[in-house]
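Running low. Invent one:
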Amino acid sequence: MTGNLFKEVEFYQVRKATEIACGDAFLSHRDRENGRVVSVLSDGLGSGVKANILASMTAKMALKFAESELDMIRSAEIMMDALPVCAVRKIGYATFTVVDCRDNRTIRIVEQGNPGYIYIRDGQVLDLPFSEVSGRHGDYRKLRITECEPQPEDRVLFFTDGVTEAGMGSFGYKLGWRRAGVVEFVRRVLLENPTISARGITRKIVNEALLKEPGGRAGDDTTCAALYLRKPRRTLVLSGPPFAAGRDHEFAQLIETFDGRKIICGGTSSGIIARELGRTLHTPLLRGRSTLPPVSQMDGVDLVTEGILTLTEAHRLLESRTVPTETNAATQLVELLRESDVIELVVGTRINEAHQDPSLPVDLEIRRNLLKRMKQVLEQDYLKEVNIRYI
């Protein structure tokens, strides 16, 4: 049964070294009412902008069809009609893989043209039965359809041929890395770290593929995606003091009793929690070139940062999917949030009288709006489950 499990979905991609746009496209959607998650990976013909358009169009069509409850075989036929075989190269204009996880009932995997997925259970790669369906037009393209009942800790890894063909023609990889090479690498990774996140394993696979390429430069668009069914990784974020000072102890007890990672964003908030729980708060002097206040330390808390400035920068990084080159309070906050599944945001509503006229609660509104926007981007772009409450 997977009804109480979180479905982590992540992907990582690198575009072909000579191009400005990636010719692979990945889309995913979570239906929060029924727990369903649909993910699509498409590889457009060739590379660059044209491939990007073909892949994006295919991924959007596949996602819509999968969500519409229209028969998937009929849906795929419509897509193949819309993306015919290239008259010159005699290959399809785009390939795709659809992974449809329907709560605790089934996982359906539909493939057309991409390398075969890898299904992992208890550290072993399963060879699942599948059916194969030919298109109506009698060309080479076939659909492979797999259905199975998922179990806790199951993983599905799926990727474009930029992964399996990495290093093709080189001395050690005449035929590329191949799916068998990916399987062996994944086994080693899971042996070393059985609970590695979907985000972590997709990055490892793509980076390993790049190591096969001459000079580490991607010879093709390279994308890996993953679905990981697991017990939710929970994180609590406290920001801002509670409205009534009499609730300070209740506020601090949230840190004491929460089962998961704990983050405090705000100097006043961290001071209240240190006082109420009798813990020492260590705040180093600001050093280096970082424009953000430094990270503080408190026993039993995973991350303690300043408030508004750090939250603003973290929101920017999340929204832009920027890969930071430095480590600071905001990048550490983003890392913890991206590695989480269920995030509880608790926003204190006391007006900070030291900052401005209490009749103009600008600081409070900035904090509220920031965390609302962070909730939105975490849910929409990263498929996290985010709850927000005010105290």
